[in-house]
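Page 37, continued from 36.
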């Protein structure tokens, strides 16, 4: 089984994440896409992050009716900040017959050489890259790498930061968030 891993804080998960994950699951050689909820990104401050279990629950609500998508909380039990190589190693040990591929934006590919053990990731895992306009120059060594495939996935220019700001200001987020996620946010009075 070939599983694509889309890492993120999902703070909150929105339709842009879902469109990308679904596209990768149904328009590539992947059998499924798992959303990996990260408790803390090593490259981002964690001060604005909602509790990890709330973010995990919102992802579960968002993908409940899609059998091509899954979610994992494996990074919750790992030292923080968690690094992609450690998560991949853990998953490969837990699911030895699965083949895991990373899904990342072109902006992450630009900084990929700074990742912990990035050479080992490339040695054992394929990377599916979706375009991100204005993301910067991809290092030459990665441009034509045999393990890196650029996938022309449709993108929406929506950010979780923008959504959190809308929620804080009491503005509508209709059509930006799945209805079940918005209901959960409103019931729990999150992001206010």
């Amino acid at each position: 089984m070939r599983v694509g891993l889309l890492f993120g804080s999902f703070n909150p998960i929105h339709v842009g994440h879902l469109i990308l994950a679904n596209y990768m699951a149904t328009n590539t050689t992947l059998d499924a896409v798992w959303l990996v909820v990260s408790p803390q990104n090593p490259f981002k401050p964690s001060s604005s992050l909602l509790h990890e279990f709330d973010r995990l629950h919102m992802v579960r609500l968002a993908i409940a009716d899609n059998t091509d998508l899954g979610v994992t909380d494996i990074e919750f039990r790992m030292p923080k900040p968690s690094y992609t190589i450690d998560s991949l190693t853990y998953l490969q040990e837990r699911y030895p017959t699965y083949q895991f591929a990373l899904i990342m934006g072109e902006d992450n590919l630009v900084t990929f050489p700074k990742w912990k053990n990035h050479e080992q990731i490339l040695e054992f895992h394929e990377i599916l890259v979706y375009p991100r306009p204005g993301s910067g120059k991809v290092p030459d060594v990665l441009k034509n790498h045999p393990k890196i495939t650029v996938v022309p996935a449709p993108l929406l220019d929506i950010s979780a930061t923008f959504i959190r700001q809308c929620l804080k200001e009491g503005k509508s987020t209709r059509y930006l968030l799945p209805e079940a996620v918005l209901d959960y946010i409103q019931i729990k009075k999150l992001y206010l």
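The first strand starts at residue 2 and ends at 8. Flag for discussion at group meeting. The two ends are 41 Å apart (CA to CA).
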